[in-house]
Amino acid sequence: MHSDICPPGRQPPTRAQGVGSCMAMLCVALWLAPAAAGGPDAVPALRRTRLNVIYSSSLFRTVSRNDAIAAMQVWLATVGRQKGFTVDAHVFVADDLDHMRRLLRETPPGVVLLDPLEYFELAGLGVLDPAFFGAKGRGDEAVQYLLLARQDPGITALADLRGKSLVTYASSRAELGRKWVEVLLHESGLGPADRFFGALSSVTNPSAAVLPVFFGKTGAGVVDRASFEVMKEMNPQLGSKLRTLAVTPPLLDGILCVHKQLLEYRDELLESLRQLHQDPAGSQILLVFKSNKLRPVDPEILERVREIGTKYRRIAQRQESRPSKSGEAR
Hints:
Blueprint: H1 15-32, E1 47-56, H2 65-83, E2 85-94, H3 97-106, E3 111-114, H4 116-122, E4 128-135, E5 145-150, E6 165-169, H5 176-187, H6 193-196, E7 199-203, H7 206-214, E8 220-224, H8 225-234, H9 237-241, E9 242-247, E10 255-259, H10 266-274, H11 280-288, E11 293-296, H12 299-320
Parallel strand pairs: 1-2, 1-3, 6-7, 6-8
Antiparallel strand pairs: 3-10, 4-10, 4-11, 5-8, 5-9
Helix pairs in contact: 1-2, 2-11, 5-12
């Protein structure tokens, strides 16, 4: 298996990129799972296959590298032993969109993991088929972001947060929660976030977006619903002391795409992805990546993400051309 392989002329992946290689190992393991038609002893000799995996480093801001590696090692050992396959895996890390485009053009078809806003930037290439996303929460739903504030009589609506600080939880560089708030402010006629709020910050731990609000150190926080529900179970006071001012519709914070030219074993690969949560080793991998199961991408939900991204981009373009607070052009 060739993991963390870089294209010629590029430096080896960093420690952060190493986390991504674990996600790639997940795809490799899944590729193994459906290969044998019989039981564990049905394939007496190892068979070799090749899989190219391209993934974006954007997705791995909140994943434990060591836990991911351990989970993947268990999964690969288990599935490989049961199915009698050895995989010649070539793993590529895309540092940015330009790098991703080059890899999509230069490498044979395979599996691609990226955030949904990156997908829309690359959709024009016509080679990506969005297949699955990681479902969150007890209902196995897509991600929803909440705008939280303290149960204060003076804070009952978004407009009441003017001048206060905002902290947003972001599991990827897409920062959908932050972009959603910007769109929400614009559509409410409250102006850009950097002028409406006294301070803006982003964190990679859900509790860091909630607890400062609970203790009155931050005016408001944005966090995903699944994380907040878990926190309320651990500390019921969070539910009684905090109020939800706004909620997003279901969104996607990461998607797994299959290259449209990947035809060999395609059906088997898709089926193994659907059944990942039914295997104990697969469940451990999903736990590392904070998902319950993989679900097929809903085009309607994906379209909602596109709308937020498009609206945010338009707002950002207008802000770039507006006068600064000192009266000078930005």
